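Hey, I'm writing a tutorial for new members on how sequence and structure tokens pair up, and I'd like a real worked example in the thread rather than a made-up one. If someone can provide the structure for the chain below, I'll link this post from the tutorial.
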Amino acid sequence: MRVTEPFATSLRRGTPLVWATGAGDDLTALLGWGEAFRATAQGPGRFAELDAAFSAWVATLPSGSNPVAYATVAFADDSAAHSVLIVPELVGRWAHGVLTVEPTPGTASAATLPDPTSPCEFDELDLLPGRLTRQRYRNAVAAAIERIRSGEVEKVVIARDLVATSPEPLDLSALLARLQASNTASWTFHVDGMVGSSPEMLVATRGTRVRSQVLAGSAPVTGDVHLDDVTATRLAASAKDHTEHVYAARSVAERLASVADVTTRDPQVIRLPRIMHLATDIGGTLRGPHSPLALAGIVHPSAAVCGTPTEVAFDVIAELEGFDRGRYAGPVGWLDARGDGEFVIALRCGQVDPDGTSIRLFAGGGIVTGSVPTDELAETARKFLPMYEALSPVDRP
């Protein structure tokens, strides 16, 4: 089935599972409707359990079938949140203004593409403090700095949360359309109520090739080209940001090197609409078969969202944040039965509550020697902006 329509119209067809990136003629998306199969898992074995469940289900299909699955995985081994893998009944590929839809192998042929709903705008949402108020976040960062000074940990990522509420269920289709339109260099996703636009590719595979892009170290983007050029130069020369970045890039490269022959490029500055980052591209060739979900489990958690040493940073995060991150900062993405797939880190995101009337937003920053609590609070505020603006009723050019 082929339908010619704007991408926003495709998003209004029953609020699909979503994986989208790009703009204009370069915009591509993988969409899913219905559920042909669902698996859930918790605990340290969640990656392997989801991977095994998908493989077992694929084995029941006709030979050569290549279904697509979406997954969102909890950040921590002890999280109360379920990690989820979903195979949709219908898969749609959107490119160049055309949505091409086909049923997942083994599903009922009666599955139909939902009709689009009417465009909708948001009422103003109430934005409430989460588990960490601004002052409590500053205090947590200050405590993390003391742990670093004492030599207990080298880097630790401290996050905070906000809750946006509405008297009516959120229009996820409108939220997704706004996120994608405003964050074209990121990957917009929606899986089981986890929604956002992440700029950080954790791991992507195609055949035997694997790649990752690590982001750590940041500065604001103002839109003033001259000022942003100066800021980018300072970021590229910042010892504090390079220290933070090196921990993150090394953690991914070393873990990928356990299963692939990898090469690492020198860091560069990339600019997003509201923030710029130091970025390192890592690529390689797998030495054996590994599913994208298995690779995500090998690489997660990178020092970009946890810290180093990993085990110590986990303990510090649990103590200083004092809340369950759920799927925030965990892998989210898609995979198919042939071993191709893409997983980003769930950043610039939120988790919709089951009743649909509120969404919990998350943002964090890497704390290293030289970090300043007020500066780290400002960085989290910038990282909230993609979701906050997408939820805002104010029209923007």
